[in-house]
User: Fold these one by one.
Assistant:
Number 1:
Amino acid sequence: MIAALTTLALAQAAQPRLDPRTAIYELRIYHAAPGKLDALSARFRGHTLKLFERHGMTNVAYWVEQPNEKSPGGRVVYVLAYPSREAREKAWAAFGADPEWRAVAAASEANGKLVERVESIFMTQADYSPPIRLVR
């Protein structure tokens, strides 16, 4: 346990400080499968956010759109931040290979996929944007 905490602390200390003015922001939209929005939110709440942080992703904000005519399953919309696109690619590769994530994903999808479709948009902060405060 102590070794795992030490490894995590060292990994976090080694991560570059994120400058909100130069960060790469990723807007991700998860279209939930019908009837799976609560399970998807539970997976984010209980596991995904901490795993993102473990792999160097900065959680900026999350929103939930309830099911409606245009989105029958509802959607989870969120923003992550990274120091660069290269850092983003490395973080997602590590996240996808993480045994804890694989176990969580398999368990949460035992009764079917939670997500039908994912959209991803990459952004940088506009020079006229109010300041963003990123907390890690």
Number 2:
Amino acid sequence: MLFAYKVPAVSRRNDRNRLEEQQFLASYDPSQFDRPSVTVDVVILTLRAGRLEVLLTQRKEHPFKGFWSLPGGFVGMQESLDEAAARVLREKGGLEGVYLEQLYTFGAPRRDPRTRVISVAYYALVEAGRIQEREGSALLRVVVPWEGEAGGPVEVEGGRSRRHPLAFDHAEILGMAVRRIRGKLEYVPIGFELLPERFTLRQLQQVHEAILGRKLNKDSFRRKVLASGRLEPTGELESGTGYRPAELYTFKKDRP
């Protein structure tokens, strides 16, 4: 005896919904809504001579021709935000496999005089030895005119302490990056990204002082970082110094 299979009502409803959605998408006109452009801007931070520096590029065209700006670019239609940021790092900074984190979205209506542009900012922390200043790019010192984590835009300066204005709202983006890393420094070991694989406690303290913008007590700092369990002694001493060599440490990565 044969039994007829009755299609459940829920299944018939789902099929009807899928068909209606396909018809809707086929007739959908995206031009009926204004669409802003989307870019990514990457704050590439490093440390040289105990100073926090940022990699900038000099604009070759309008708007803000001749101004320094953060490396950035428009997001491709088939590209995720993270992929676009990684591409900017690779193409404009020659960098891959570095610490990269999404920072904030900047969307003031008139932040770009060309058109409505929303920028998703990222920041990268890079050991100075990995950065190569290409033609049209330079590492400039970050000048933070405020203390703590409650400030606004920051400035940059180059040779002879000359201050350079930044294009668009990039001074605000850079200031946000400084606030972010200052806030995370105490509970996330991001400072190690600015150091070589083996480093001294003095070098680690210099990283913290450069980010925080203030001097730290040597003894208190060393007790704190050694008690954190994040450091592993190598049993080696630094070389090529004109003073008593210090012990070298590595960052203790989480093990499975």
Number 3:
Amino acid sequence: MTTVSALVTDPSGGVLLVRAPDGGRWALPSGPVLPGAAPRESCVRCVTAATGLVPKLGAPLVTGWYGDGRAGARATRLVFDGGRISASAVPRVRGLRAVPPEVRFVPPAELPSVAGAAEASVAEAALAARAGGRTAYLEDGRPPRVLELMTTYGIVPWVHSGSAWVWHPEPVPTEVPIRQSWVWVFAPDGRVVLYVDTAGHIGLPGGTLEPFEHRDPVAAAVREVREETQISITPPRYLGYLLDHPPGGGPVARVRMAAAITAVGPVAPDPATGTVHRRLLVPPQLIAEVCGWGPGADAQTAAAIRAGRALGVAEPDPEAPVTELPAGGVSGQPASI
């Protein structure tokens, strides 16, 4: 089922809410998509039914996906931009002078107390989307954390070949070349360092082994973490490797390590690329999704969290906030991060 709603605001910024005929909850003017009608046409009709006026609707501000009250059933909700109602049209809105009113304009700050938290979150997302010139996507009333992270830090969508790599917890076979070494770098609170480059790509710090490192992923890990993020770490612990079969070549291993932060310096250009990376602290449970590794990364994530416990960091909180390490570095002990 698809439901359509409209965000209409008055000259002072109040949001148009409608109360169900039975005197129930307040909500944005809403209704089902009618048989044979497009969603936008159905939304025009539901606003007209609520106000007595025909709106000139814009594009959707919110696309939502939520439970519709039936066991296991899901539904879609589109919230269109109904624009701002003119001062002359406000007195014409049907029901505005009724007692008790069936239609009212509510200041944004009062939405939770009038419409409830769930409906207020949808209206607030629509207001923010209108102000930002974009469309919001919600699941059960809120944007997925990964999308919030991507929007906040300018992380771009992409399709990563790493989702095809296969995790192996055992040592790398001697006949398989070690191509790269990446590190789960733990902060004292259990969050993990991710870098963001100027193109909006994100990943664990690490990189390609140099010839002088002679198949030593530990040496490469320490060097690459320092060069990319200006972070010093404890001796890395081996977690396992990802087996990659690149097109046109033989299999290679991409090693994963774990380590704890010992010092955080000021950001500086990576000597290999000249890029200055942003450094985020992210709950480990979010990393596979935000990096685009796919569900096959669950075993690697579990191994990293176990290694973090062995390193003495705190148990990671999946709901911990994502924050950025200061560009100027962190003075004193890592515990101050």
Number 4:
Amino acid sequence: MNPKTRPPAAPALPKLADFLCFAVYSANLAFGRAYKPILDELGLTYTQYIAIVALWEEDEQTVSGLGQKMFLESNTLTPILKKLEQMGYLTRRRAQEDERQVVVSLTDAGRRVRERIQTDTLNEQTGLTPDEFATLQKAVAKLRDNLLTAVEGK
């Protein structure tokens, strides 16, 4: 074949490091590693910790409402809440106005656990300034919301 008549080369496919989804995924793994020593000391998983944070922020939530905040289905969240209840960090009870709903609340022990976990050090480990941290957090939340809207067809 004549070198002057070669077809143009196909554009290079993006590498793994070029994928935004991989950057978010691998950052999530890195956050998990950063949180692990702190949470291991308390005997908590990251998801259990997030449930405690969500309840600390707004106590007396229904399981379905908490699941929406945490982006978890009830069948995934319920075992997490049962374990936290066994650990003495929360209580579950049927809602008086609608017994089909279960309301979860932190116990005093659950509130103390939340207060023991200081995220300042973890935030510093990101190497971001407070403004950069806030900007990135908002951008990732917007990305998540946009993707959910697209997938759910809203």
